[in-house]
Design goal:
This is G-protein coupled receptors family 1 profile domain-containing protein. The protein is mainly α. It has helices at 37-71, 78-106, 113-149, 159-183, 206-246, 254-286, 293-320, 322-336, and strands spanning 2-3, 15-16, 184-188, 196-200, 289-290. It has a single domain (19-336), classed as Rhodopsin 7-helix transmembrane proteins (Rhopdopsin 7-helix transmembrane proteins). It is built from 8 helices and 5 strands, in the order ββααααββααβαα. The N and C termini lie far apart (46 Å).
Length: 337
């Protein structure tokens, strides 16, 4: 999806300011000029293929994660409750990718105002939900390490409590995304009434509103949660180091170590996929960029990379979590028996 900011500008030098890129796709109405036709043709073919692969792999993998966690009794743990909600968020996003693909192929939005608001809202849920559930998982890992160092039990750390925390995360994300839902709408080109785009359409001055929305996303969707996670893991490593050097307490058992490592790797992959998107926010806010085929290609690569995060997590669980792998294998054996 894109954002409208002076769409009727016909600057022949093809300058782009902060509105050159926004989450989703780079709509034609966002451009002040048209890139080379052969470049457009390549994008027209390549992007639907990439999005379709992400959709198919993500939908299959995350559905499998949801199924295994819900059906296997041994998978009902606190960490897996957060993983379940992460998989639901990723599945929800991959379900709407075909609509994004259709818009890209048609070069206009044919689905109406209501669906536009729903799709753009889900797009933004994807920005916030993954990092917030990973933040909660990091807090949980820190509390587990802290309790282990102090040789204390955690009676409040229950599956039921994890459900309540997960619900709170969903409510928080919904509240954060409400402004985007309000401003989402169908933009009709003044030159061609049949040319419609599903965009964030801000009131005047559009540029200021757009910058505010980018800063809002950068702070709430990246700066605050990532800073929290970094502080937690720094403190966690510090306590583990001190435990080995200065304490006779038992080290984390093998299972807890594996879960902590898995959460850390899932977090690292998430940051790898999303950091370029948020860095593009900083670039868009601080520079005026001249549009080139390379710049458009980079913007689509950044979008595809952020989309790809929704299909990578199931593979990480399969490689890093023995209990998930065993539960999934057992269910396959039951299905084929």
């Amino acid at each position: 999806m894109g954002n409208i900011s002076n769409p009727t500008n016909t600057n022949p030098q093809c300058n782009l300011s902060v509105d050159f890129y926004y989450y989703g796709s780079l709509n034609r109405t966002d451009l002040n000029c048209t890139p080379p036709s052969d470049f457009n043709a390549d994008l027209y073919v390549v992007l639907p293929v990439i999005y379709s692969i992400i959709c198919a792999v993500g939908l299959t993998g995350n559905t499998a994660v949801i199924y295994v966690i819900l059906k296997a009794p041994k998978m009902k743990t606190v960490t897996n409750m957060f993983i379940l909600n992460l998989a639901i968020a990723d599945d929800l996003f991959t379900l709407v990718l075909p609509i994004n693909i259709a818009e890209h192929l048609l070069h206009y939005w044919p689905f109406g105002e209501v669906l536009c608001k729903i799709i753009l809202s889900i797009d933004h849920y994807n920005i916030f939900s993954s990092i917030y559930f990973l933040t909660v998982m990091s807090i949980d890992r820190y509390l587990v390490v802290l309790a282990t160092v102090r040789s204390k039990r955690m009676p409040y750390r229950t599956y039921r409590a994890a459900k309540i925390v997960s619900l709170c995360v969903w409510v928080l994300v919904i509240l954060i995304v409400v402004p985007f839902t309000v401003f989402a709408g169908v933009y009709i080109s003044p030159e061609d009434s049949a040319r419609k785009s599903c965009v964030l359409s801000f009131p005047s001055p559009e540029g200021s509103w757009f910058k505010a929305s980018r800063i809002y996303t950068l702070i709430l969707g990246f700066a605050i949660p990532v800073s929290t996670i970094c502080i937690l893991y720094t403190m966690m490593l510090y306590k583990l180091r001190n435990m080995r050097l200065n304490s006779n307490a038992k080290a984390l058992d093998k299972a807890k170590k594996k879960v902590t490592v898995m959460v850390f790797i899932v977090l690292a992959v998430c940051l790898f996929c999303w950091t370029p998107f948020h860095l593009s926010t900083i670039v868009a806010l601080t520079t005026d960029l001249r549009i080139t085929p390379l710049l458009i290609g980079i913007s689509y690569f950044i979008t595809s990379l952020s989309y790809a995060n929704s299909c990578l997590n199931p593979f990480l669980y399969a490689f890093l979590d023995d209990s998930f792998r065993k539960a999934f294998k057992k269910m396959l054996e039951c299905r084929t028996a």
